[in-house]
């Protein structure tokens, strides 16, 4: 009976988790252009992101009352991978000379975070 239940569970259709999205809405500070923020984000992807399986795309509003808003959409394999990457980032912040701390300082100089949420995606 247990084998039959296991086979049935494997064959029944269900949601398949694809990845986790990390969505951060920020407002660009006066004197910081989108091109500057994009440059920092590209450096993040090339250095820290590649090493940790995390990739960022930026979204700009097409119709919005605030054109200085930027939406960061980080993409990573799973919630577990996100947790591991987050631990790596957070722990490195104790060292002001770390890649993570230097990148964070540049992001902070250029933008103010408004909100952050994460989502599991399903196919």
How would you sum up this structure, described in words?
The structure is a single chain. The chain has 123 residues and is of the alpha+beta class. The protein contains four helices and four strands; from the N terminus they run H-E-H-E-E-H-H-E. The chain has helices spanning 2-11, 34-52, 79-92, 99-110, and strands at residues 17-28, 54-59, 69-76, 111-122. A four-stranded antiparallel sheet has the order 2-3-1-4. Mean pLDDT is 89; it is low at 4-13.
Secondary-structure map:
Blueprint (H helix, E strand, L loop, with lengths): L1 H10 L5 E12 L5 H19 L1 E6 L9 E8 L2 H14 L6 H12 E12 L1
Antiparallel strand pairs: 1-3, 1-4, 2-3
Low-confidence stretches: 4-13
Beta-strand share of residues: 25-35%
Q: Give the structural class.
A: alpha+beta
Number of helices: 4
Q: Name the average pLDDT.
A: 89
Strand sequence of the main sheet, in spatial order?
2-3-1-4
Count of beta strands: 4
Q: What is the ordering of alpha helices and beta strands?
A: HEHEEHHE
Helix content: 40-55%
Major sheet, described briefly?
Answer: 4 strands, antiparallel
Rg calculated over all Cα atoms = 18 Å
Short summary:
This protein has helices at residues 2-11, 34-52, 79-92, 99-110, and strands spanning 17-28, 54-59, 69-76, 111-122.
Describe this protein with a few key phrases.
single chain, 123 residues, alpha+beta, four-stranded antiparallel sheet, 31% strand
